[in-house]
Amino acid sequence: MLTRSLAVLIFLFSLPIKAESLAPHRECVLVADLNSGKTILQQGDGFCDERLSPNSSFKIALALMAFDSGALTSKDEILKWDGKKQPLESWEHDTNAERWLKESVVWFSQRLTPKIGLANIESYLKTFRYGNQNFSGGLTKAWLMSTLKISAREQVEFLRRARLNDLKIAEKATDTVMTILPVEVNRPGLRISGKTGSGSSWENEKDLQNPNPYQVGWYIGYAEKNSKAYAFAAVLTDKVNRGEFASSGKIAKEMAIKAIEGLK
Protein backbone atom coordinates (compact mmCIF):
# COMPACT_ATOMS: atom_id res chain seq x y z
CA MET A 1 0.00 0.00 0.00
CA LEU A 2 1.37 3.41 -0.97
CA THR A 3 2.28 5.81 1.79
CA ARG A 4 0.43 9.11 1.72
CA SER A 5 3.56 11.12 0.88
CA LEU A 6 4.46 8.77 -2.00
CA ALA A 7 0.92 8.97 -3.34
CA VAL A 8 1.10 12.76 -3.28
CA LEU A 9 4.38 12.71 -5.20
CA ILE A 10 2.95 10.40 -7.87
CA PHE A 11 -0.09 12.62 -8.21
CA LEU A 12 2.01 15.77 -8.56
CA PHE A 13 4.29 14.23 -11.17
CA SER A 14 1.22 13.15 -13.14
CA LEU A 15 -0.05 16.73 -13.45
CA PRO A 16 0.38 18.55 -16.79
CA ILE A 17 3.84 20.05 -17.12
CA LYS A 18 3.99 23.83 -17.06
CA ALA A 19 6.68 25.78 -18.88
CA GLU A 20 9.15 27.49 -16.60
CA SER A 21 9.16 31.25 -16.96
CA LEU A 22 12.61 31.75 -15.50
CA ALA A 23 15.55 31.93 -17.89
CA PRO A 24 18.37 29.43 -17.26
CA HIS A 25 20.62 32.12 -15.82
CA ARG A 26 19.91 35.70 -14.76
CA GLU A 27 21.65 37.93 -12.29
CA CYS A 28 21.56 41.37 -10.72
CA VAL A 29 23.97 43.36 -8.59
CA LEU A 30 22.67 46.63 -7.18
CA VAL A 31 24.72 49.00 -5.01
CA ALA A 32 23.35 52.25 -3.58
CA ASP A 33 24.78 55.06 -1.51
CA LEU A 34 23.67 54.33 2.05
CA ASN A 35 22.60 57.88 2.89
CA SER A 36 21.21 59.28 -0.35
CA GLY A 37 19.88 56.07 -1.87
CA LYS A 38 21.46 56.97 -5.20
CA THR A 39 22.24 53.93 -7.32
CA ILE A 40 26.02 53.67 -7.68
CA LEU A 41 26.13 50.44 -9.67
CA GLN A 42 23.53 48.27 -11.37
CA GLN A 43 24.09 45.06 -13.29
CA GLY A 44 21.04 43.20 -14.50
CA ASP A 45 18.64 45.90 -15.70
CA GLY A 46 15.00 44.79 -15.28
CA PHE A 47 15.92 41.68 -13.30
CA CYS A 48 16.81 43.93 -10.35
CA ASP A 49 13.08 44.72 -10.05
CA GLU A 50 11.80 41.13 -10.21
CA ARG A 51 10.54 39.70 -6.94
CA LEU A 52 11.96 36.35 -5.84
CA SER A 53 11.88 34.31 -2.65
CA PRO A 54 14.33 35.83 -0.15
CA ASN A 55 15.21 32.47 1.44
CA SER A 56 17.79 32.99 4.18
CA SER A 57 18.44 36.62 3.27
CA PHE A 58 15.15 37.12 5.15
CA LYS A 59 17.06 36.43 8.36
CA ILE A 60 18.11 40.10 8.53
CA ALA A 61 14.49 41.24 8.59
CA LEU A 62 13.56 38.40 10.94
CA ALA A 63 16.38 39.27 13.34
CA LEU A 64 15.17 42.87 13.48
CA MET A 65 11.64 41.64 14.25
CA ALA A 66 12.90 39.21 16.90
CA PHE A 67 15.00 41.70 18.83
CA ASP A 68 12.36 44.44 18.57
CA SER A 69 9.49 42.19 19.71
CA GLY A 70 11.41 40.47 22.50
CA ALA A 71 11.32 37.04 20.82
CA LEU A 72 15.09 37.29 21.29
CA THR A 73 16.30 39.18 24.34
CA SER A 74 20.02 39.30 23.56
CA LYS A 75 22.53 38.18 20.95
CA ASP A 76 23.79 35.58 23.44
CA GLU A 77 20.41 33.94 24.07
CA ILE A 78 20.64 30.25 23.14
CA LEU A 79 17.95 28.10 21.55
CA LYS A 80 18.45 24.37 22.12
CA TRP A 81 18.82 22.01 19.16
CA ASP A 82 16.14 19.32 19.50
CA GLY A 83 18.49 16.52 18.45
CA LYS A 84 16.80 15.90 15.10
CA LYS A 85 18.95 15.25 12.04
CA GLN A 86 19.50 18.42 9.99
CA PRO A 87 20.51 18.96 6.34
CA LEU A 88 23.85 20.38 7.53
CA GLU A 89 25.96 19.21 10.46
CA SER A 90 26.63 22.85 11.37
CA TRP A 91 22.92 23.18 12.26
CA GLU A 92 23.08 20.33 14.79
CA HIS A 93 24.10 22.50 17.72
CA ASP A 94 22.57 24.71 20.35
CA THR A 95 22.60 28.11 18.68
CA ASN A 96 22.63 31.79 19.57
CA ALA A 97 21.75 34.68 17.26
CA GLU A 98 25.29 35.23 16.01
CA ARG A 99 25.71 31.57 15.07
CA TRP A 100 22.20 31.58 13.57
CA LEU A 101 23.19 34.21 11.02
CA LYS A 102 26.70 32.90 10.42
CA GLU A 103 25.64 29.29 9.80
CA SER A 104 22.20 30.22 8.38
CA VAL A 105 20.39 27.83 10.72
CA VAL A 106 16.87 27.35 9.36
CA TRP A 107 15.34 25.68 12.44
CA PHE A 108 16.32 28.72 14.53
CA SER A 109 14.24 30.94 12.23
CA GLN A 110 11.37 28.46 12.45
CA ARG A 111 11.40 28.72 16.25
CA LEU A 112 11.29 32.51 16.16
CA THR A 113 8.41 33.09 13.77
CA PRO A 114 5.74 31.40 15.95
CA LYS A 115 7.04 33.37 18.96
CA ILE A 116 6.67 36.65 17.08
CA GLY A 117 3.27 35.65 15.69
CA LEU A 118 1.70 36.03 12.26
CA ALA A 119 -0.11 39.30 13.01
CA ASN A 120 3.09 40.93 14.27
CA ILE A 121 5.14 39.61 11.35
CA GLU A 122 2.63 40.98 8.85
CA SER A 123 2.71 44.34 10.64
CA TYR A 124 6.51 44.41 10.50
CA LEU A 125 6.51 43.47 6.80
CA LYS A 126 4.19 46.39 6.08
CA THR A 127 6.28 48.82 8.12
CA PHE A 128 9.48 47.53 6.51
CA ARG A 129 7.83 47.73 3.05
CA TYR A 130 9.31 44.28 2.54
CA GLY A 131 8.51 43.07 -0.97
CA ASN A 132 5.02 41.69 -1.51
CA GLN A 133 4.51 41.30 2.28
CA ASN A 134 2.80 37.93 1.66
CA PHE A 135 3.32 35.53 4.56
CA SER A 136 0.43 33.23 3.67
CA GLY A 137 2.83 30.39 2.86
CA GLY A 138 3.06 29.55 6.54
CA LEU A 139 4.79 30.73 9.71
CA THR A 140 7.71 28.36 9.23
CA LYS A 141 8.27 28.49 5.48
CA ALA A 142 6.71 31.55 3.80
CA TRP A 143 10.18 32.93 2.96
CA LEU A 144 11.52 29.58 1.67
CA MET A 145 10.64 29.41 -2.04
CA SER A 146 7.04 30.15 -1.10
CA THR A 147 4.76 33.20 -0.95
CA LEU A 148 7.04 35.94 0.38
CA LYS A 149 8.97 37.62 -2.43
CA ILE A 150 11.15 40.69 -2.78
CA SER A 151 13.26 42.35 -5.48
CA ALA A 152 16.91 43.37 -5.25
CA ARG A 153 15.90 47.04 -5.38
CA GLU A 154 13.47 46.53 -2.51
CA GLN A 155 16.14 44.68 -0.53
CA VAL A 156 18.53 47.61 -0.90
CA GLU A 157 15.92 50.14 0.20
CA PHE A 158 14.97 47.97 3.18
CA LEU A 159 18.64 47.68 4.19
CA ARG A 160 19.14 51.44 3.88
CA ARG A 161 16.15 52.20 6.05
CA ALA A 162 17.27 49.63 8.62
CA ARG A 163 20.78 51.08 8.92
CA LEU A 164 19.39 54.64 9.11
CA ASN A 165 16.94 53.64 11.87
CA ASP A 166 13.94 54.42 9.68
CA LEU A 167 11.97 51.20 10.30
CA LYS A 168 10.07 52.44 13.38
CA ILE A 169 11.61 49.81 15.62
CA ALA A 170 13.84 50.07 18.68
CA GLU A 171 17.26 51.45 17.83
CA LYS A 172 18.77 48.84 20.16
CA ALA A 173 17.30 46.07 17.99
CA THR A 174 18.91 47.56 14.89
CA ASP A 175 22.26 48.03 16.62
CA THR A 176 22.26 44.41 17.81
CA VAL A 177 21.57 43.03 14.34
CA MET A 178 24.26 45.18 12.76
CA THR A 179 26.71 43.88 15.38
CA ILE A 180 26.05 40.20 14.62
CA LEU A 181 25.76 40.46 10.84
CA PRO A 182 28.47 38.16 9.40
CA VAL A 183 31.53 40.03 8.13
CA GLU A 184 32.85 38.60 4.86
CA VAL A 185 35.62 41.08 4.01
CA ASN A 186 37.54 43.18 6.53
CA ARG A 187 40.73 44.75 5.32
CA PRO A 188 42.10 48.29 5.07
CA GLY A 189 39.77 50.40 2.95
CA LEU A 190 37.07 47.72 2.57
CA ARG A 191 34.56 46.09 4.88
CA ILE A 192 31.63 43.97 3.66
CA SER A 193 29.01 42.35 5.87
CA GLY A 194 25.83 40.62 4.86
CA LYS A 195 23.67 37.53 4.58
CA THR A 196 23.34 34.89 1.88
CA GLY A 197 20.21 33.03 0.86
CA SER A 198 19.80 29.92 -1.30
CA GLY A 199 16.82 27.90 -2.43
CA SER A 200 15.58 25.56 -5.16
CA SER A 201 12.18 25.44 -6.79
CA TRP A 202 11.94 21.67 -6.31
CA GLU A 203 11.79 22.26 -2.54
CA ASN A 204 8.23 23.56 -3.01
CA GLU A 205 5.68 20.78 -3.59
CA LYS A 206 3.77 23.00 -6.02
CA ASP A 207 6.83 22.95 -8.31
CA LEU A 208 7.44 19.19 -8.27
CA GLN A 209 5.99 18.82 -11.76
CA ASN A 210 8.26 21.55 -13.13
CA PRO A 211 10.61 20.04 -15.76
CA ASN A 212 13.15 22.85 -15.31
CA PRO A 213 13.92 23.26 -11.61
CA TYR A 214 15.81 26.45 -10.79
CA GLN A 215 17.71 27.90 -7.88
CA VAL A 216 17.67 31.38 -6.39
CA GLY A 217 20.73 32.86 -4.69
CA TRP A 218 21.08 36.08 -2.69
CA TYR A 219 23.75 38.07 -0.93
CA ILE A 220 22.62 41.33 0.67
CA GLY A 221 24.23 43.69 3.13
CA TYR A 222 26.50 46.64 3.68
CA ALA A 223 29.86 47.81 2.42
CA GLU A 224 32.28 50.50 3.52
CA LYS A 225 34.93 51.42 1.00
CA ASN A 226 37.32 54.33 1.25
CA SER A 227 35.10 56.08 3.82
CA LYS A 228 31.96 55.67 1.69
CA ALA A 229 29.02 53.57 2.89
CA TYR A 230 26.75 51.45 0.69
CA ALA A 231 23.82 49.05 0.84
CA PHE A 232 23.80 46.29 -1.76
CA ALA A 233 21.96 43.26 -3.04
CA ALA A 234 23.08 40.55 -5.44
CA VAL A 235 20.68 37.91 -6.74
CA LEU A 236 20.73 35.21 -9.40
CA THR A 237 18.63 32.41 -10.78
CA ASP A 238 20.11 29.36 -12.45
CA LYS A 239 19.34 25.77 -13.33
CA VAL A 240 19.65 23.14 -10.63
CA ASN A 241 19.29 19.37 -10.60
CA ARG A 242 16.25 18.02 -8.77
CA GLY A 243 17.24 17.01 -5.26
CA GLU A 244 20.44 19.08 -5.36
CA PHE A 245 21.08 21.44 -2.44
CA ALA A 246 21.39 24.94 -3.85
CA SER A 247 24.58 26.82 -2.97
CA SER A 248 23.75 29.77 -5.19
CA GLY A 249 24.05 32.21 -2.29
CA LYS A 250 27.82 31.67 -2.40
CA ILE A 251 27.83 32.61 -6.08
CA ALA A 252 25.79 35.74 -5.36
CA LYS A 253 28.31 36.61 -2.63
CA GLU A 254 31.19 36.34 -5.09
CA MET A 255 29.29 38.54 -7.58
CA ALA A 256 28.67 41.23 -4.96
CA ILE A 257 32.21 41.28 -3.59
CA LYS A 258 33.70 41.53 -7.08
CA ALA A 259 31.38 44.41 -7.98
CA ILE A 260 32.08 46.30 -4.75
CA GLU A 261 35.82 45.81 -5.08
CA GLY A 262 35.57 47.45 -8.50
CA LEU A 263 33.92 50.62 -7.20
CA LYS A 264 36.02 53.74 -7.55
Describe it.
The chain is of the alpha+beta class. The protein has one domain: 3-Layer(aba) Sandwich (Beta-lactamase), CATH 3.40.710. It is 33% helix and 22% strand. The protein contains eight helices and eight strands, in the order H-E-E-H-E-E-H-H-H-H-H-E-E-E-E-H. It has a six-stranded antiparallel β-sheet, with helices on both faces. The protein has a two-stranded antiparallel ribbon with strand order 3-4. Helix 2 crosses helix 4 and helix 2 crosses helix 7. The longest helix is centred in the last third of the chain and has 14 residues. The chain is globular, with a radius of gyration of 18 Å. It starts with a helix and ends with a helix. The N terminus is likely disordered.
What do we call the CATH homologous superfamily?
A: DD-peptidase/beta-lactamase superfamily
Extract low-pLDDT stretches. Answer: 1-21
Q: CATH first level: which class? A: Alpha Beta
Helicity level: 25-40%
- Count of distinct strands: 8
Beta strand %: 15-25%
Look up the CATH topology: Beta-lactamase
Summarize it.
By secondary structure, the chain is of the alpha+beta class.
